[in-house]
Amino acid sequence: MSSYHDFSRRRVLRGLLGGSAVSVGLPLLDCYLNSNGNAFASGEALPVCFGTWFYGLGMNPGLWEPTKIGDKYDMRSCMAVLQPHRDQINVISGLTAHLEGGNPHATGARVVTTGETTPPSGAVAGLPSIDTLISDVIGKQTRFRSLEVACDGSARTSISQRSGSSINPAEVSPAAFYTRIFGPDFTDPNAADFKPDPRTMVEQSALSAVADQRRQFAKNLGAVDRARLDEYFTSLRSVEKQLAIQLQKPAPMAACTIPAKGSDAEVGTDVTNAVANHKLFSALIAHALACGQTQVFNMAISGAASNLRRAGNTSTHHILSHEEVVDPVTGYQPNVTWFQERYMEAFRDLLVTLGSIREGDKTLLDRTLVYAMTDVSYGRNHSTKNFPVFTAGSAGGRVKTGLHIAGNGDTICRAGLTVQQIMGVRTGTWGTTLNQTSKPLSEMIA
Q1: pTM of the predicted model, to two decimals?
Q2: Total domain count for the chain?
């Protein structure tokens, strides 16, 4: 009988579902790792992961920047919900996106994601985004070079691109995203006509299709790995059940009547739905990373100039950022701040999810670096000075965490250059014109 040491760390469990092949990846179990849990048994380092996390319209100035530099920094009110994760987060203040005309939201987002200020005369804007540069280094050996999701209902809410004419569209449905990861083998994830049927994969559990292999595999594992495997699959099954509920027809209600048809609301713009989908996307991305399906992901809770709205309110976050009156007592816009709080809660959920997957004595978050981005520093006046910038995770020990770093008015491309160098991109400069820099944030490089 084969021992579990004979199994490849890239092994997947395979089965049939509705006549199609499915594969379910395995997490990093102790049997794949060395005695310290910080490398594979062969001595090979655990693969690092990278993700971008985007939200629109920045944060209230003066309410997110820590007052202390270095470690033991203080979490201000806009980011207070992240306090339990302070030691895993770096906050960088004082960085600026230098603009040379154009729409501040679009130009600001372009500077942050691609380093490009203004394209040369006659040229089309469209340098590769930071995630594609990184995926060219760490994403070549995985099933998906990168995975993109958007929580606002628009596939165009994607900050990932090869060029201005080659944008990686975001998935907006957690159920369809589930199908993409756990669907039939040999399906081209980049095909323009890719139309997954989430019902097939959710109503019939992929985990059920590999149940026999799972039981056989578990027989050869130690007690700790069996418990971890059970925990992993329990978590994945929980996501399956949540998605299945979304696909069910609601129970009839006697008091319900059909109103006269009005204008259709934009799909996915209710912030409550966006946050709920963000939680499901977070779980699926975590499983994709944990079982080696990808090492790069891009999440957007909202797009630049966020069009998310509060339930029952037609005014979007963007409109409110310009029209809402600043409260004279608190000094900020109350409804705009409410959106900022929801975004930070969603980011916290992502960190909790990544941190809940244990790998030896570490977690998935420990070998991941998440780079949080936005389009402007302050939506009310389109300011791009003092951008809110923060990272989470240590990328397998490559990043010093728990720091507040002062940018001193330098270009925000310093942050982008830093994360590229941390993730192994061989470049000494990044950014164009006024945003070009060769100065990484050395304080956070381990």
Answers
A1: 0.79
A2: 1
